[in-house]
Specification:
This protein has 290 residues and is an alpha/beta fold. The chain has one domain: Alpha-Beta Barrel (TIM Barrel). It contains eight helices and ten strands. The strands form two sheets. Strands 8-7-6-5-4-3-10-9 form an eight-stranded parallel β-sheet. Strands 1-2 form a two-stranded antiparallel sheet. Strand 4, helix 2 and strand 5 form a beta-alpha-beta unit. Helix 1 packs across helix 2.
C-alpha cells in the first residue's frame, strides 16, 4: 500500500476539489425510469432533489446526477429528454447544497446545459469516445471531467469484453482518453480517471481491475472507483443477488478500492458507505510501508 497522492482539481467559479487526504464519497442520483440500482424510484424531480439533499446530509462530498441508464443493454436516450430529466434537478440542487454537482452524461449538449445550470464536473462513461465534442464543452466551461473506461455501447459492451491483460489495456485506453481531453483544451489538472468496473468487462475482468487498482496510479490523475451494486459483485454469491441487496458486497469492494488508493468512490448507499470509507481510511493511516 503506497501513500495516496494528493491533488487539487480546479472547478468553475474559483472552487476546487481537494483529493487525497481522505476518500471522498460521490452519491448517485439516477433520474431514470430504468435504473438498475433503484428501480426508477427517482424519476419525479422533487423525489430526486430530496434524495440528493439527504445524501449530502448523510455525508456525501459530491452528487452525481444522471438521466440516461448506461447499464448493459440499455437503450440510448435523446439529449432533449435527458436534459428534461436532469437540468431541473441540478438547478434546484445548486441553490440547496454546497457540495460539487456532477452530471453523468456523454452528450455534449446535455453537459453544456447541466454546467450552465450549476454542475461543475462531467462524468463521462465513454471517456470522450461517444461524443468527442464533449471535450470542448468541458474546456470552455472550465469544468472537471471524469474519464471512465468502456468499450462499445450499452447494447453490445459485453461483446467487446476481451482482454489479454485487462489492466494494461484499460490503462492504454484511458491514456488515449486523457489525450482526447487535453487535445480538446481540457487542462490536465481537471481530469480524473475511472477504470469502469462492470463496463465492457466480464466479472473476472472487474475483479482483476479492482484487485490491481493501485496500478492505475501510474496515470498520475485522481482515481474514481464505482463498484456500487454492480452485477459482478453477485458472482461469488451465486449470481442471484438483486441490486438493492448488494450493499454488503459493495462495502467489500469499496474497502478494497480505498485501500488501493481511490480518491473518490461512487455509491448509492451513502450513509452505510460513509462508515466503510472512514474505517478503510483509518486502516490506510496506520499501514506501515515496506
Amino acid at each position: 500500500m503506497q501513500p495516496r497522492r494528493r491533488f487539487t482539481v480546479p472547478l468553475p467559479n474559483g472552487r476546487s476539489l481537494a483529493l487525497g487526504e481522505r476518500t471522498l464519497i460521490m452519491g448517485v442520483i439516477n433520474v431514470t425510469p430504468d435504473s438498475f440500482s433503484d428501480g426508477g424510484t427517482l424519476t419525479d424531480i422533487s423525489s430526486a432533489i430530496d434524495a440528493a439533499t439527504a445524501m449530502v446530509e448523510q455525508g456525501a462530498d459530491l452528487i452525481d446526477v444522471g438521466g440516461e441508464s448506461t447499464r448493459p443493454g440499455a437503450q440510448p436516450l435523446s439529449a432533449d429528454e435527458e436534459q428534461r430529466r436532469v437540468v431541473p434537478v441540478i438547478e434546484a440542487l445548486a441553490s440547496r447544497v454546497s457540495v460539487p454537482i456532477s452530471i453523468d452524461t456523454y452528450k455534449a449538449a446535455t453537459a453544456d446545459a447541466a454546467l450552465a445550470a450549476g454542475a461543475v464536473v462531467v462524468n463521462d462513461v465513454s471517456g470522450l469516445r461517444y461524443e468527442p465534442a464533449l471535450g470542448g464543452v468541458v474546456a470552455r466551461r472550465g469544468a472537471a471531467i471524469i474519464l471512465m473506461h468502456t468499450r462499445g455501447r450499452s447494447r453490445d459492451m459485453y461483446e467487446q469484453a476481451s482482454y489479454l491483460d485487462v489492466v494494461a489495456e484499460v490503462l492504454d485506453e484511458l491514456r488515449e482518453s486523457i489525450a482526447f481531453a487535453t487535445g480538446a483544451g481540457v487542462a490536465a489538472d481537471r481530469i480524473l480517471v475511472d477504470p469502469g468496473l462492470g463496463f465492457a468487462k466480464e466479472a473476472s475482468h472487474s475483479y482483476e481491475a479492482l484487485g490491481r487498482l493501485d496500478e492505475f496510479t501510474e496515470l498520475r490523475r485522481p482515481l474514481v472507483a464505482g463498484p456500487s451494486r454492480k452485477s459482478f459483485l453477485s458472482k461469488p454469491l451465486g449470481g442471484r443477488v438483486a441490486p438493492a441487496d448488494r450493499d454488503w458486497a459493495t462495502a467489500a469492494a469499496v474497502t478494497a478500492a480505498v485501500l488501493a488508493g481511490a480518491h473518490i468512490v461512487r455509491v448509492h448507499a451513502v450513509a452505510q458507505m460513509l462508515h466503510v470509507v472512514r474505517v478503510a481510511d483509518e486502516i490506510r493511516r496506520y499501514h506501515r510501508l515496506d
